[in-house]
Amino acid sequence: MAKAFTVSCPNCGAGLQTDPRNTLTHQVSCQYCGTLVTMVPAAARKRTALGVPPVPTGPNVVLLDKPEVPKGQAVGFAITIGLAALLPMVIGLFAVVANSGIFSELNSRFNPNLFPLECETGREVVIRKRNETRTDAFVFASTACTIRIVDSKLSGPYIVKEGTGVKIIVENSELRVSKAVFQGGNNSRIELRKGSKVYEDDAVFDGAQHSKLTIVGSVVESKGSIFKSESFGEVNLKEKSRLKAAKHVLAGANSKLTVDNSEVVLGSSLVREGTDYFTVDASNGSTIQSEAIAIVGGSYGTVRLSDSKLTGMTGAVDMGRGTVSLLEGATISSRQDAVRMGDYGKVEVGQKARIESGAVAIRVGGHSDVSINGGMIKGIKAAIMADDYTTVRLRRATVTGVKDIKGRYSKVIED
Description:
mainly beta, 14-stranded parallel beta sheet, 3 helices, 10% helix, elongated
């Protein structure tokens, strides 16, 4: 059985395998850089001499073996034979160098023709040690492909376009984007690691629904939003990450933000106004602060804080039916009403947690449930204001301010 042999990709130097039994001109895709390389065996060149269409030419064409030497060129043939004797050693040395990644490293640093890359279905593309600016995307992706950006600085309107289920991993890199990091299909992922930084003018995701942004020890600063459209997406921050956005972070039902030992700074509401069924979960010394109302949501939202702070200049939480839960060490504060909820609202304040307001600390509609268990509530105008059919439970609670709970069938239970 004939064994496949390896030649180098003319674009990046990576190894390409081909079957020596194939006597027809054919194409092979480089698994590293995605270049489509045309292989031309000697038999194909012989057929060309007999009148078949000409041999392809160009930078991505590889002649697999030398054509026969015409008579009268004995000297040249002898030299070729001599070089052939050294060929195994040269190939061996080349293979060692190619496998070491030196060629791909050289390509990723100096080849100006690398971009734009095409990431085929299920494949992976690596961008390493590049400092580039483009007027379009760096990568055009297919379904379920992975793009790794390592030790690079990229600037342009887009980083990746197209594709569904795309995964973008950014390590120790800086991205400056005028439109979106990813513009494409649903169920896509972006992971920022190892001190990466993203500065964008519009959005991180454009058009991608049910997608996820994970920020680990990294920074994202947006002059716009994180999700441009109704995304139903998820954002996770951890390991002292920082997210700064002029507009909303979450948009669409079932959106979720998780903040662990990290910081979120907002120019407006964290949630796009009217969004239902969202979740905000902050823990481990995290902070969320806004120059406006920090969270303006629809109904069925959940805000859960543990050893973290939520602050809004003109309000901290303002939503319809939903739940606000403060576990040990959590704080919500605002110069205006701190927590404002509609009917069927639920507010829980646990041990060493507190809500402070320059106006009303907790304001809820009818049929609501407020429970202060070892926590502290302070409001300059009022500590708690509640409408009809509301129950307020105070157990070892510290309440500073008026308790205006005069609605029909409302009651206060104190331990």
